[in-house]
Amino acid sequence: MLSYPSAIALSSRTLNHLADLIRAERARRRGRWWRLDAGRQALLALAHLRNGDTITRLACGFAVSVTTAWRYVREAIDLLAVHAEDLNAAMRRIGRLAYTILDGTLIPIDRVADQRPYYSGKHKRHGMNVQVIADCAGRLIWASPALPGTLHDLTAARTHDLIDALTSANVMTFADKAYQGAGGSVRTPFKRHRHRPRLSRRQDRQPPPRQDPGPRRTRRRHPQRLEALAKLRCCPRRATAIVQAILVLHHIHTSRNPR
Fold it and tell me: 18, 125, 146, 211 — which has fewest CB within 10 A?
């Protein structure tokens, strides 16, 4: 079998931060021997999360067994997920913003035994629903725990108490038409119905591109842009930990002073 070098579009700061977490965990467990050192384990996990390399390919490239590679990736994800902010902590930062953007995304999954709760009629596929809050520049601030894909975006947002939290923080929030009726501080586009009068010029007018607060500007920056979330091939219950780990990696990569 052949192997070749590859690149990961992440900073060395991200690698060092994850390696430090792994070293601290190994010191706490007081183990004596590992097949890979902390830096190589961190590199293996980042290759899976960022590039979407399969466990089998990583096991071959790092000269470890498939079981070891799977365990190393799972350990790294759990270490990162522990440091993810909860909604209350995120709201303290969100409250200082001029406005935020709320949107939902579906993370595709493999079919499971009980398929009905995970099937999204909108996307015509099985997946997990994740609610995302971004700032005015489209930078990811917070991502919710994953829920079955059959849930509507507004129902998922209410399940996580996002509407009440954003309203309590007194921050203007822009969302798409899926959140119509949310109330509070959430603002959605006007929607013309079949048996209602046409929209007025003010309602139908689109804002200039530079001032467009809609969620279309942030879709490129959603967590599904990382290849690990292109399609989950693990238990759907692992989706929340993976999303939280990627959220922490995003904050480390974009912050000059990571925690």
Answer: 211
